[in-house]
Structures are given as structure tokens and as C-alpha cells.
Amino acid sequence: MSRLLVASLPARTPSSLLDLGAGEGALALEASSRWKCLDLVTVDVDHHASRVLAQQLQRRGFAGRHRHVQQDALEVDLCRRLSQEMKWRPSAAVCNPPFLVPAWRKGYCSIVEDAGFSGALPAITSTDAATLFLAQNLRLMEMGGTVAIIVPDSLVSASKYQRFRETLLAKYDLQQAIRLPRGAFAGTDALAHVFVVAKRKPANDLVRLSVLPALGAKVKSIYVDRDRAAKRLDYFFHASQQQQQHPPSLALADIVVDLRRGSFNSAEVRASPAFVLHTTDIHQAMRGTWFDFTGGDETYRDERFKSAVIAEAGDILLSRVGRNAADKVIGVLAGSIAISDCLYRLRVGPDHRVSVLRSLTSAAGESWLKAHAYGVAARQISKADLLMLPVEPL
Ligand SMILES: C[S@@+](CC[C@H](N)C(=O)[O-])C[C@H]1O[C@@H](n2cnc3c(N)ncnc32)[C@H](O)[C@@H]1O
Whose CA is nearest to atom 26 of ligand 1? Predict the structure, then answer.
């Protein structure tokens, strides 16, 4: 992963390279292998990590210059501290920030403002550290410099970051967004991407979206125009749309009667006196079939089920979250069943029930659902996206 990230930077030796949150230096070490005489500056709050990095550089015979700054990388005055360490602003940066939402500090506003992201970020209580690390890198970098940074899937896919993506694409030259395979980082299943951003106005209207299908595989790319790319900076999302030769004649939004998620969370499902259908109850063999739920009707008259979402004959149930969400799609043949909040209840008129269930479970429907699911850990599909599902007529 480090090699891919460092290789995505321009070939010329940077005048100096910055690694914010360098840790034990996986990225800095890779950069030092590519450019032997590098002027390298690493920053991390953790002192121990820097000692390991210094030893590694020495062992590998690094011929450049390395300085480590033990400091919070998100300090507003980091610029002043770095100018003591490096003569010029960095012309390249690598970064693998922590995937968390930090407690907001006043100084973050200046970092965000200086990078031109004011008003483009979601609520401060839900802004990922990655946006702050990206902003800080762009703020510190010389004009024309390039940063390669690992970001969580939320920045790429979540609607709360749409304004951020629009601003990023308008103010900077996003040279490439690379989707990494799940499990790319030891010990985590998080879905992450690499952004390669040059600090200059965009050179053209096309954005390169790439995917690394598996570790060691070849990167595949497509080009998407900037306006569409802002919707999602995700290879699969746009590749699946480009494969659709013709726009669908019918979308789910055209025929939906009701679409809502269930009302019971996992704890309530466990405590419920009557059976509540959860994603784990829907097995592979049930996929795409019409299922008979006759038998539960009496219990659901209980007071506790008054405001519950109950699925009835003709409804279609599908998983809203989870890695195998596209597998968990069934129809209700008869009876009624309360559902958990991990499931959607989809209601369409009798004429469309069969075609909708078939569209959701066809090979094309399955890849469509996978391409439109988003999320760093558990994948989920939003209502707005689901309503765009193309429905194949019978
Ligand atoms: C995900 S690790 C990445 C480490 C290394 N760059 C790599 O790719 O393996 C994130 C690193 O950021 C450091 N870190 C987290 N918050 C920081 C902050 N506010 N300032 C400086 N370093 C920070 C952590 O100590 C940790 O070493």
C-alpha cells in the first residue's frame, strides 16, 4: 500500500517531503527508498515511533536528511515550527491519518479556512480527522506541490461530504482517487482510498478514478467529468454507470409506494416478545424468493408493536447495511412480520412486485447494489440511492 501511495506522486525528487502522523514511518521509508537523497520531515505526537523510524532509515543507508518534529500535526502554528526544520515549504507529502472524528478545537477553523474548505465540511462533531490532515498538508505545501493521503470511504462516498468534494475538485487538482481493497491495512476491515492532490487549480475537467482490486493486482482507471465525480469519487460507482449503455427506462423512484427502514435496533430485537426479522435471519438460500410469514399476526397486535414497521404480503425486504447486503433480499408471500432497523421495507404496486424483486437480485442488480453501497466499516445503502435502482420490466 505504501508503495502504491508513494508511486502516485510525481517522479521528480521533491525539494522536501512531509509526513504528518508518520508513526514508525511506513510511508516515509517507502519515500526514502524512491528518493535516496530526500529532505524528509516527519511529524508525530508519538516519540517512540520516531526512534524506530530513525533506526530504520539508518539501517537502510538513507543518504538524505531527516528531521522529526514531535508535535500535534494539527496545530495552527505548525508552519512556524516546520520553517525552522526545512528551508522551503514541502513540495510533496505523504499521509496516513488516524481514522477518527477528533474533538473539535478552535484552531481547526484556521486550518480549514486557509485550505479553502470553510463552509464545505459537515458538522464539526462529525468531521473526520482525515479532512483536517488533508487541509493542513495543503496549507503547508508549496504551490504546485502534491500530497498523497489515505482517506476513509466517508470522504469519497458520504452525502455529508458532497460540498467538500465539490470544493476540493474546484480549488485543487485531484490527480487521482484510488479505491483500496478491503483489509488493505492489517487489523482493520475499513474501506479506504488514496487521494493524490496537487496544490493548484485543476488542469482539466476530467478526474481519474482508480481501483486496486486486490493486493498486488494492477490498478484500473476510468475518467469521469468533475461534476459527476463530486457525487462520488469512487471507481465502482461510476464504472457501473458507464457500463449501462442506455439510461434505465424505469427507476424504483418512479413506482415506489413506500420505502422505510424497520424500527427495532439489535437490543430490541433480542428483547422482543415476538419474532422480529433481522438481517442474520435471511440466508443465501432465501435470496430472491417469496417467503411465507403466516403465524406472527396475533402477537403484533400487542401494544409494543403499535408503532413498529410490519411487512405484509407483497412487500420486499432488503438489507440496509452489512458486507453481504446484496444477498439479503426477499419478498413477503403471505402473513406479516416485524423487521429490524437493518432492513428496508419496500412497497410497490402489485404490477411491479415481481420485476422489482428480480431487478434487485439479478447479476446487474447485485453489482448495482454493491457499487452504490458506501461506508468505512459496515457498507450501507441510502434510501436516496436505492430509489435510483433501475427496474427491468418483465
Ligand atoms: C494510522 S497511523 C499511520 C502511521 C504511519 N504513517 C503509517 O502509515 O503506518 C496514524 C499516526 O498518526 C499519529 N497521530 C494521530 N493524531 C496525531 C496528531 N494530531 N498529530 C500528530 N500525529 C498524530 C499517530 O501517533 C499514528 O502514528
Answer: 23
Which atom of ligand 1 is closest in space to residue 24's alpha carbon? Answer: 5
Listed residues 243, 265, 295: the one ending a domain: 243
One domain, residues 294 and 171: no
Domain of residue 336 covers: 252-386
Give the number of the atom of ligand 1 that is nearest the alpha carbon of residue 73.
Answer: 20
Backbone angles phi, psi at 344, to 5 degrees: -100, 145
| pLDDT of residue 193 exceeding 60 | yes
Q: What digits encode the pLDDT tens for the residues 22-48?
A: 999 999 999 999 998 899 999 999 988
Q: Judge contact between 391 and 356, C-beta under 8 A.
A: yes
239-294: per-residue pLDDT in tens?
A: 877 666 556 678 898 899 999 999 999 999 898 888 899 999 999 899 999 999 98
Which cell numbers hold the place of 269? 430485537
Euclidean distance between CA atoms 230 and 159, whole angstroms: 10
Please indicate, yes or no, if residue 169 is contained in any of the structural domains.
Answer: yes
> How far, in Å, is the centroid of ligand 1 from the Cα of 11?
25
Report the distance separating Cα 352 and Cα 290, nearest Å: 14
Ligand 1, pocket-test mutation among 48, 77, 96, most atoms within 8 A of CB? 96
Nearest CA to ligand 1 atom 27: 23
Q: How far is the CA of 137 from the centre of ligand 1 (A)?
A: 14
Q: Looking at the domain assignment, is residue 392 inside a domain?
A: no
Residues 168 and 89 in one domain: yes
Last residue of a domain, one of 218, 243, 268: 243
Ligand 1 atom nearest to CA at 74:
19
d(CA 24, ligand 1 centre) in Å: 9
**DSSP letter assigned to residue 390:** B
Number of domains in the chain: 2
CB-CB contact of 69 with 81 (8 Å): yes
